[in-house]
Design a protein that fits this description.
By secondary structure, the chain is an alpha+beta fold. The protein folds into 3 domains: about 1-175, SH3 type barrels (Roll); about 180-275, Annexin V, domain 1 (Orthogonal Bundle), CATH 1.10.220; about 290-405, CBS-domain (Roll), CATH 3.10.580.10. The protein has helices at about 10-15, 95-100, 170-175, 180-190, 195-205, 205-215, 220-225, 230-240, 240-250, 255-265, 265-275, 285, 300-305, 315, 340-345, 370-380, 400-405, 415-425, and strands at about 10, 20, 25-35, 45-55, 55-60, 65-70, 75, 90-95, 100-105, 110-120, 125-135, 150-155, 160, 290-295, 320-325, 335-340, 385, 395-400. InterPro entries: CBS_dom, CBS_dom_sf, Mg_transptr_MgtE_intracell_dom, MgtE_N_sf, MgtE_transporter, PRC_barrel-like_sf, SH3_actinomycetes.
């Protein structure tokens, strides 16, 4: 619907994900949220859009620069401000903070949940919130939360829309995460206010939350795990890569860390405790205890099937570590490695022990990150074996874990150019 017609009405839930175009018709980004000014009294006013541009950067597009909002397209007047969007205290994100919020209907019929928000452009070209699509909450709700009657009401027909103490679900916001990679979901969570961050994270499934925690910065993931029930937090830690779980546990207060380790599955907790014993910037502190490990009698078909497992990261999938039994870390003697690319050239029935690469130099758990980095770069590898003095495999260090420790501590939160500048300074000493 063109912004020049009067009134123009747009529903925010449908607007999220819409492509944004410049006057030449080139796509410049995608709408992620709407920024509104919501007060306890008075009509809420929308002031801009949060637009995700290439590089996953989120920027602010004032609605005064929007020419039209139509099905599948938002047309802007010109270049976007490329500075990263930072929410102000007076601003409310409609998708992240209003959808699924519990409000009270002023006619006395009880509580309802906001499922969509309608914006209309006024004659002075301002955009205001005029109506809400809500779902009544029936008595004795719970699992029946979404089965109540739906209705479209004027914004003045509800109380509590601007209340900071209002209850709020997370279904609408989580639905916008569909199809996103864990790192992108982590970016969206990071942009939420602290209290909302914990609420939304807690509503994710355990496996999704585990993946997202591996991508979040220290402050955010500590806040989330501290806000979860201990049993739930332990279940999520069980699903994380052992090295990431160990990093997270090390950031928690001692009492909370001990509590969670005691609640974790014994095998997973043992892996985490073993990793916690090593220094942060050593091979032992960087490694995961769950690389691909097979016996020399395994076939190529078995090796490829193992590499295809969804829980194996791309960096670790490129290398199979071949050992004598036992096959759980710490294993028997490391015999060598099989590169995935080499395995693809062999017949499925071939035994992987027949074409081992025995020249890969392993590292000891106490070796510094500098040695690990040099070996990865020198031999163009994505992973290295970590062994003890008896050449038993303890784990593997992957290139992505090394990068996490070489980048600045706040690299997940920093703009791309600031991170590049910090890395350049680091490279030049």
């Amino acid at each position: 619907m063109s912004a020049r017609t009067s009134p123009a009405r747009v529903f925010v839930a449908r607007l999220a994900g819409t492509d944004v175009f410049d006057p030449l018709g080139d796509r410049v980004g995608r709408v992620r949220d709407v920024v509104a000014l919501v007060r306890p009294t008075g009509t809420p006013r929308a002031v801009g859009l949060v637009v995700e541009v290439p590089g996953k950067r989120r920027v602010f597009l004032p609605l005064s620069r929007v020419v039209s909002i139509e099905a599948g397209a938002v047309l802007s007047t010109g270049l976007l401000n490329v500075r990263r969007f930072e929410q102000r205290a007076t601003e409310t994100l409609v998708v992240a903070q209003l959808l699924d919020r519990e409000v009270e209907l002023v006619d006395g019929s009880g509580p309802a949940v906001v499922e969509d928000v309608a914006l209309e452009q006024q004659r002075n070209r301002d955009w205001v919130v005029t109506q809400l699509f809500v779902r009544r909450l029936p008595p004795g709700r719970g699992l029946r939360r979404r089965r109540g009657e739906t209705l479209l009401v004027d914004v003045a027909a509800v109380r509590g829309l601007g209340s900071e103490r209002a209850q709020q679900g997370a279904l609408a916001l989580i639905s916008t995460f569909e199809g996103l990679k864990p790192a992108d979901v982590a970016d969206q969570l990071h942009d939420l206010p602290a209290s909302r961050l914990v609420e939304v994270a807690a509503a994710l499934t355990d496996d999704v939350l585990a993946d997202v925690l591996e991508e979040l910065g220290e402050e955010d993931r500590v806040s989330i795990v501290s806000g979860l029930l201990a049993e739930r937090a332990a279940d999520v830690l069980d699903l994380m890569q052992p090295d990431d779980a160990a990093d997270l546990v090390s950031e928690l207060p001692t009492a909370r860390a001990t509590e969670l380790l005691d609640l974790m599955e014994p095998e997973e907790a043992d892996d985490v405790r073993r990793l916690l014993a090593y220094g942060e910037h050593t091979a032992g502190g960087l490694m995961t205890t769950e690389p691909i490990i097979l016996a020399p009698e395994a076939t190529v078909a078995m090796a490829l099937a193992t590499a295809r497992r969804i829980d194996v990261t791309p960096a670790l999938a490129t290398m199979i570590f071949v050992v004598r039994p036992p096959l759980e870390t710490p294993t028997g003697t490391l015999l060598g490695v099989v590169h995935l690319q080499h395995a693809l050239r062999e017949p499925p029935h071939a035994l992987i022990g027949s074409f081992l690469d025995r020249d890969i130099e392993p590292v000891l758990p106490e070796d510094a990150i500098g040695k690990v980095t040099r070996l990865l770069a020198t031999y163009n590898l994505t992973a290295l074996p970590v062994v003890d003095a008896d050449r038993r495999l303890l784990g593997a260090v992957s290139v992505d874990d090394v990068l996490d420790h070489l980048l600045p501590d706040d690299w997940r939160d920093a703009d791309a150019d600031r991170t590049d500048e910090a890395m350049t300074r680091s490279a030049h000493g």
